[in-house]
Each structure stands twice: as C-alpha cells, then as structure tokens.
Amino acid sequence: MTILVVAEHENGAVAPATLNTVAAAAKIGGDIHVLVAGANVGGVAESAAKIAGVAKVLVADNAAYAHALPENVAPLLVELAKGYSHVLAPATTNGKNILPRVAALLDVDQISEIIAVESADTFKRPIYAGNAIATVQSNAAIKVITVRTTGFDAVAAEGGSAAVEAVAAAHDAGKSAFVGEELAKSDRPELTAAKIVVSGGRGMGNGDNFKHLYALADKLGAAVGASRAAVDAGFVPNDMQVGQTGKIVAPQLYIAVGISGAIQHLAGMKDSKVIVAINKDEEAPIFQVADYGLVADLFEAVPELEKLV
Amino acid sequence: MKVLVAVKRVVDYNVKVRVKADNSGVDLANVKMSMNPFCEIAVEEAVRLKEKGVASEIVVVSVGPTAAQEQLRTALALGADRAILVEAADELNSLAVAKALKAVVDKEQPQLVILGKQAIDSDNNQTGQMLAALTGFAQGTFASKVEVAGDKVNVTREIDGGLQTVALNLPAIVTTDLRLNEPRYASLPNIMKAKKKPLETVTPDALGVSLASTNKTLKVEAPAARSAGIKVKSVAELVEKLKNEAKVI
C-alpha cells in the first residue's frame, strides 16, 4: 500500500496543512509519497523531503502547474494515481478544487473532509454542518480523500530524509488561465493553524471596533476570525470567516465575541478545546457550547480582558 | 447563450437535524425541506445573466426524488425558463449526480453550467468539479464574481488567503460561493406563472446513467457532546479560569 499526498504550498514553502495530511496518511499506514506540483518549486520539494515519515517526494515543476489550476493539475494526478492505493490532499480551497476532478476522472467517489481513519478503507467525516458524523467505507481501487486538517495533529516538519524525484509529465489543457490574485495581508498567525482564535460577530457594531479584538489577539498571539454576519456587514474581509462556508478551526482556545452562535458558525469552531463566549444576550446559543461564558458588554469586557492577560 | 443550473432539495438550513436511534442516518421525516442555499445563489446568478442579456435561456435541473419538483418550481418562479427532473429515489453520491448531469449537459449543450459550491446536507463539495471532469470543461469554483466576456468567462474565486481571478474558456462550470449575490424572493404572481412553465421528468436509465457508487455509509452517529460549561461573573474570574483551570493562556 502506497499513499500519495498532494502537498499544499505557498510562497515557496510547504503549508502546515500538508503536515496534518501526512499525519492522516500515517494513520492509514504504508509508504507515503508527497507530490509537489507548481512552478519553481525546487525549494518546496527540499522542505517536503524533510517531513517526518515521508518516503519519497515527487516534483512536477512546470509553468502549467503554477497557481494550481485544476484543469492542468488533475490530469497529472490521474497519471500518477495509477500506482497508489490512496490519494490524499488537505481540504484547503486547492484540495477541494482539484481532488473531485481527479476522482471523477478515475471514476471513483471521493470522501471529503475526513476527521478520523478507522481502517485503510473506512473513514469518519462530518455531515449536516457537523451535526452528524458518518462512517464511510470505500471499495474503490484508488481511494481519493480530502483531509480536514484540524482532525489530525501535524507530523514534524523536520527529521525525514526522503528521496526527491522529478516528474517529467507536463499537462497543459489550455482551457483556463490565471489572471490575478488579491491576498489579504496579515502579520497575525494563520487562522486555521493558530493556537488561539479571537472572533467577532455582528455585535462588534462596525469594522473599526475590530481594533479591540486585534489588540487582544496581539497580546495573546492569536489569529482573528469573524462570523458570517460580520463579514456580510462589511466589517472584515471574507477570508476571516469561520463556519460551514468559511474556515474550519480547532484551536486550543476560541474566544467568540458578540457572536450569537448559529449552527453554521458552530460547524466551523465547535471542535476547539476551550470555548469562551462574551455576549450581552444571556440566551444566545453560543453559551450552550461555551466552556466559559461571560454575560457582559463586549466594549467593556474586551479591553479589560486585554489588560489582564 | 444557454445556462444550465443544478439545484438540490435539502433539509432547510435552519433545522437542527437529529440522528436516527439505529444510526442508519439522519431523521428527515416531517422535516422542512428547501432549495440548498448555494443553489439559490446559482439560480440568482443565472437570472442576473439573463437580465443583462448575456443568457438567452435558463434550464434548471435537479437529480433526486419526485418531491424535488417543488424546488424546480421555486427556481422557475425565480426566473428559470424550464426544468428537468432526473428522478432517482436513493440518496445519491456526488459522482452519480455528476454523471446524470453530464448526460443532461450532452443533451442541452449549455455554454455555462452553474452549481452551488456544496450541499448543506452531505457537505461534499464535489459535484461541480466532477461534472467539469466528465465534460472536460474548465471549472471556476467558489465564485464570488462571474463576468462573461466573449468566448471566455472571468471568475473571481474565494481562496484561503483572499481572492483569485481565473479566465475560463466557454463552455465552463461555475460553482457559487455565498458572496456571489443575494438571491431574490419569488413573488406570488411569478409563483403562479411558474406552474405553467415546462417541467420534464426523465429517469437515469433513459439517460443511460448508472448510479452505482464506490462509497458506502456504514453508520451515522451524533457528534460527541461538549460537557456543559459555566458562566463566569467577571473578566478577572475568566482570566483566572483560563490561566489556572483550562491552562490555555
């Protein structure tokens, strides 16, 4: 049994999501190979080779694979997949974009966002916004799976010494082209990887008031998230959204400020270790999942909290 | 150009679902069903393209039970021109749905196919990408902006770090993200008119599609419940608990 893990990378470095995905592969058992596809990704391949538990790194370095366009990357994966029992990718936007295309080309069903490995062919995944957990068995010859990164503890980024092998295959479907991108700039930790997340909701009132959360977050070394209400009201950009339709986080500590706790929001954060809710409405559903609830005006409580931590 | 929109009948997003006692699935008896929210956004985008004069006809399609006609009628009331129901009783996996949709695409020859990014019941986020693979079309997933320009469509996509814009050759597949648009409500006169619009029913057999799947759901369980928390009286008490009891800061 050999498992192919599709590496997620950005700015010439392996993204942390790759380490969680390798951890899921290790639970399945067997040799783990990592595919690094992109343009000028020699450095990424070298760092991927150091990931603990990786036996081999395949590098597909070609201009056609830049920006991970699925029309070009999927045929590459289909060609490589023939030699593997499992193909895994993190459930990032890239993983979600590319892998179903691979699965359909292989004529197999995909299993999305697994949170646990029961055996080599049986996995657990959340459905209905996390309100039910399904155990799914696959009898496909090649199992195509995306991994919810918060379900698996990352393996060590150092300590491995895998061989790096170049893949010559070049697939350029010529059907799509990258036009541009607009990335949100932030010095704070990445939302999905942060140990502490401070999130604001509609109760923040306006975008300017998020400065209270930024101040608290900087003191805690935390990332800042938001509910959909805060994003839709234009307080903050949408890549900060936590929830079923945004990012899924599972930090050590999640502080929900002015968030009522709709099920779509809970789907994105209820696996956090400790949840704190600060809300002036004591009936807010967020208090049903919060380990520590504080019924208070956030504009008094948050600055005070910032002083005391 | 012709636009094809796929819609799914799902449990209403406000319903808190319960897992059946025998762990065979989720209890959907007597639960309110609706059009999947992302599919509503897909219908809205198609209607806006028609209002701009870009789209000439909107065909809406659903793969599912007879009752999915309700959701197709809703789409017709929102502005779709005609509807196709691929009638299938079983709960289908994404690949089977994509294969049924592929057969409809072959027949209808749309220039653009719009789907939601995911259904809120299975949370799979697969069908659009699979349909793109089967048809060989380019795909613009998680779209927050769609602009048709000549023989291409520019799609701005929501990605993890922000936004990305790609140019796709037509015909293409687009899947909608929440911020693409705000769906309209169906007016009563339009709901009445929608009853007269054509709705064709076909079977997967007639389309020559097999609904077999390589996946099997063994059981469905309720998630582990969180133990009840406590309410603290002050910020000082909160900080003390986080430091000494939970030890997370």
**Mean pLDDT over all positions of chain B:** 96
Strand percentage of chain A: 25-35%
Approximate shape of chain B: globular
Largest sheet of chain A: 7 strands, parallel
Distance between the termini of chain B: 58 Å
- Tally of helical segments of chain B: 7
The secondary-structure class of chain B comes to alpha/beta
Could you state the order of secondary-structure elements of chain A as H and E? EEEHEHEHEHEEEEEEEEHEHEHEEH
Total number of strands of chain A: 18
Q: What sort of overall outline of chain A do the alpha carbons produce when their principal axes are compared?
A: elongated
% residues in beta strands of chain B? 25-35%
Q: Which spans of chain A of ≥5 residues are poorly predicted at pLDDT below 50?
A: none
Instruction: Report Rg of chain A.
Output: 21 Å
Sketch the topology of chain B as an H/E string, one letter per element: EEEHEHEHEHEEEEHEHEEH
Strand order of the largest sheet of chain B: 9-8-7-10-6-1-4-5-11
Query: What does the radius of gyration of chain B come to?
Result: 21 Å
Strand order of the largest sheet of chain A: 7-11-6-1-4-5-12
Q: Which oligomeric state applies?
A: heterodimer
Keywords (chain B): Electron transport, Transport
Protein name (chain B): Electron transfer flavoprotein subunit beta
Family (chain B): Belongs to the ETF beta-subunit/FixA family.
Pfam families (chain B): ETF
What would you say this structure looks like, in words?
The complex is a heterodimer of chains A (309) and B (249). Chain A is of the alpha/beta class and 309 residues long. Chain A is built from 8 helices and 18 strands. A 7-stranded parallel sheet of chain A has the order 7-11-6-1-4-5-12, sandwiched between helices. In chain A, strands 15-14-16-17-18 form a 5-stranded parallel sheet. In chain A, α5 packs parallel to α8. Chain A is elongated. With 249 residues, chain B is α/β, with parallel strands linked by helices. Chain B is 28% helix and 31% strand. Chain B has 7 helices and 13 strands. In chain B, strands 9-8-7-10-6-1-4-5-11 form a 9-stranded mixed sheet, with helices on both faces. In chain B, strands 2-3 form a two-stranded antiparallel sheet. In chain B, α2 (69-78) crosses α5 (188-194). The termini of chain B are far apart. In chain B, 49% of the residues are buried. Chains A and B meet through α3, α4, β7, β9 and β10 of A and α3, α4, β7, β8 and β9 of B.
